[in-house]
Structures are given as structure tokens and as C-alpha cells.
Design brief:
Mannose-Binding Protein A, Chain A; 21 strands; four-stranded antiparallel β-sheet
Length: 390
């Protein structure tokens, strides 16, 4: 491994460790939830974020049909969320994926450890027997069904639209366990010594992935810690990521049908959010001129949070070279009602835009006027353009 790549990896590991405080080969390794013989294929296209208006760099709403700002509110790309809630059983059904979710009054009060303290101190980090989140879901009987399981990270993170009201009645603001852990990708292992691999994997084995709709999107927490649980059933096969790269540095995702620019050009960096939108709109690449800045769900679609880095670095070579780089999305940020008094309406924060760090599968927010060149040792936020998905 060259020095820059190794330094990037050590930075990523430090970042991954820091994510614990938030919640207190790039093939998907998560598997799928118990389907009880009722198989449903997960939708391969990203969902709409729910943003319906456009906002300028100052956060002011503008006519989304005018095309003055060609952001997420203008394009509105993705599959429309489609949920129903059975108030009798306390089950929410996602009709895009076939997944059914526990949403009774126990959610938010059913906190458990991922593994027991006994297994943790004994370094048996994948033994989920005992009074744990996994056994809670496996033993759950709800709505006449007994085939519940703890969801994977991909299943749970794809449940709720960002800008729309949550389909869940109970505890949709909490941190929830997933059954997913994080490991080093096969590509990275080839570039590390055996001692480095052992060191990193020893750290990762002690933690599991959590998800919160409110406080960023993910975090690692020690497996002997407590967190809320929302069980799932009737899920099925996750599609295997299938990326191909052509001579024009364009990557095609055969599942989502999205095409991605994979270059690192001076024109892409040190742009504020509006400039990033304009850069993609003006891009002509691979005989196409319909490029745009991706929304946050589209950026997340190339990530696999169960590995480090969280992208296929054999294909996305720019991300491999620049593991710590952050990318603008076309989606404006929002605040959950959690931050306001109970009963107050949903309030956006459109002076900020959502950004993603694909290498660690994490999103956050940045002020739209942010330009890295104005700050010493600052994080660069790039424009990575996409086409398709309309």
C-alpha cells in the first residue's frame, strides 16, 4: 500500500472509532431477514427523499419548476415511498420492498444489548444467545407471525424518507440496533500487513452497526451496550452490487441503472453547493449531457456500510485514491421535530445540504456556502455527478 492510501485508511479507522460516540471486495455480506417462505425482492432503485421544494444557497424556497436551482426538489428522482400501517397489529408494511416492520408500543421500550456482557468479556463477539436484541426478535410474536428477525443495516436504513413524515408511530427518533457488523474489504486486506489486519479487525469485532433517522445515519456501538429494537419480517434477497466501468471513467450500476462519473478534476473541488449543481449540469461526458448532482439516497446506493471502505474501490478508483473525500448531494438538510417542542411542525434547515463520505458510508450536513479553499486543512467537498434514475 502506498503511504497516502495507508494514511487514509488509518484516518478512516479513527473516524469509524469516533462514530461509537455518536450512538454512544465490496459484496454485500448482510444476508437477508427471515422470510418465512414469503420472499420479497428489495427494490433496487433509491427512494425519493421526500423533498418537494427547491432552496437556494441562502435556504430560501424558490419555485421548484423554474429550473433556477436544479436540486433534489427540482428533479425528485427515485421510487415513491409506499407504506401502510395496521393499527390493530402494530405492523408497518413497506410495499416497495415487501418488508414488514414492528411498530407497536413496545418499540422504544425494548432496549437490549447486541451480545451479553458475559459473551463480550469472553471475547465471543458474535454469540447472540441470551437476553439480546437478536433473541428478542427471534422470539417475537406479533400480528399472528413468529418469523421476526433483527434487520440488516441496509433494510433499516432504507425504511424512512428524509423529508416526509415517518411511517412509524413509535420511537422513530431512537437509535436502533441492526444485525450488521463492519469488516475490512478484501481489497484493503491485500494492501495491509497481517498485523494491521488483526489490529483493525479486533476493533471492529467488538462493535455492531446502529441506525438513527435523526442523528446522522449510522454509528458503531460496543456490542455490550443497549439500544432500541425494531424487528422485521418477510424480507428477502438483497441484490448483489454490479458495477461496470468504461473507458470514459463512467461507472454503471446495473441494479439502480444509475451512471456515475468517477474522475478527480480540479473543476470538481473547492465548489460551494450551488457551484456543484452547476458543474454537473454543464458536464458533458461519455456522449451524454444530462448529468446532475445526485440526491443523498442515490449517493447512499453505492455504499455498503458493512465494509471499509464502503464502496467497491476496484471500480470507484477515485474514491480509493481519496478515501476521506466528502461529496455534495442535491438534497437540502432538515431538522427532525425532535429538536422542537412536542407537537410543533416539521422544520427544514435548507441553508445546509446533505453530504456523504462514501468510503465510510456516512452522511452529514454542510453549509451550502462552504468552500474548503477558504480554510486551512479543511475537508474538501467534491461534486460527483450522476445520470439516469428519472
Amino acid at each position: 500500500m502506498n503511504t497516502n492510501t495507508k494514511l487514509n485508511l488509518f484516518f478512516l479507522m479513527a473516524l469509524m472509532a469516533s462514530l461509537t460516540a455518536c450512538g454512544g471486495n465490496s459484496s454485500n455480506s448482510e444476508g437477508s431477514s427471515n422470510n418465512g417462505g414469503n420472499s420479497a425482492k428489495l427494490s433496487t432503485k433509491p427512494k425519493l427523499t421526500g423533498q418537494s421544494e427547491s432552496y437556494n444557497i441562502s435556504g430560501q424556497p424558490i419555485d421548484s419548476t423554474s429550473g433556477v436551482i436544479k436540486d433534489d426538489g427540482f428533479y425528485k428522482t427515485g421510487v415513491s415511498p409506499n407504506y401502510t400501517r395496521d393499527d390493530t397489529t402494530g405492523i408497518v408494511t413497506d410495499h416497495n420492498t415487501g418488508l414488514q416492520w414492528q411498530d407497536n408500543s413496545a418499540v422504544g421500550k425494548n432496549g437490549k444489548q447486541w451480545i451479553t456482557y458475559t459473551w463480550y468479556t469472553g471475547k465471543d463477539y458474535f454469540n447472540t444467545s441470551g437476553d439480546t436484541a437478536t433473541t428478542y426478535c427471534n422470539n417475537l410474536s406479533l400480528g399472528g407471525h413468529n418469523d421476526w428477525s433483527l434487520p440488516t443495516y441496509s433494510e433499516l436504513s432504507g425504511t424512512e424518507p428524509r423529508w416526509a413524515k415517518s411511517p412509524f408511530k413509535y420511537a422513530h427518533k431512537a437509535w436502533f440496533w441492526t444485525r450488521s457488523s463492519t469488516k475490512l474489504s478484501d481489497q484493503i486486506k491485500k494492501e495491509l500487513s497481517d498485523a494491521e489486519i488483526k489490529k483493525f479487525e479486533a476493533q471492529l469485532d467488538t462493535k455492531a452497526l446502529m441506525y438513527s433517522r435523526v442523528f446522522s445515519n449510522s454509528g458503531l456501538r460496543r456490542k455490550d451496550s443497549g439500544a432500541s429494537i425494531r424487528c422485521v419480517r418477510a424480507g428477502a434477497s438483497l441484490p448483489t452490487p454490479k458495477f461496470t466501468r468504461n473507458a470514459s471513467n463512467v461507472i454503471t450500476d446495473s441494479n439502480t441503472k444509475l451512471q456515475w462519473q468517477d474522475q478527480y478534476l480540479d473543476a470538481q473541488k473547492d465548489l460551494n453547493w450551488t457551484q456543484a449543481l452547476d458543474y454537473c449540469e454543464a458536464l458533458s461526458l461519455d456522449n451524454h449531457s444530462d448529468w446532475r448532482l445526485p440526491n443523498i439516497n442515490e449517493l447512499e446506493s453505492i455504499m455498503d456500510r458493512t465494509v471499509i471502505p464502503s464502496v467497491d474501490t476496484n471500480t470507484f478508483t477515485t474514491i480509493k485514491k481519496l478515501l476521506t473525500i466528502v461529496y455534495w448531494s442535491s438534497t437540502s438538510s432538515y431538522f427532525e421535530e425532535l429538536f422542537y417542542a412536542a407537537g410543533t411542525p416539521f422544520r427544514p434547515e435548507p441553508k445546509l445540504a446533505l453530504v456523504a463520505t462514501p468510503s465510510v458510508g456516512r452522511w452529514s450536513a454542510a453549509r451550502k456556502s462552504y468552500v474548503a479553499s477558504n480554510r486551512q486543512n479543511a475537508t474538501h467537498i467534491l461534486a460527483q455527478c450522476v445520470r439516469g434514475g428519472k
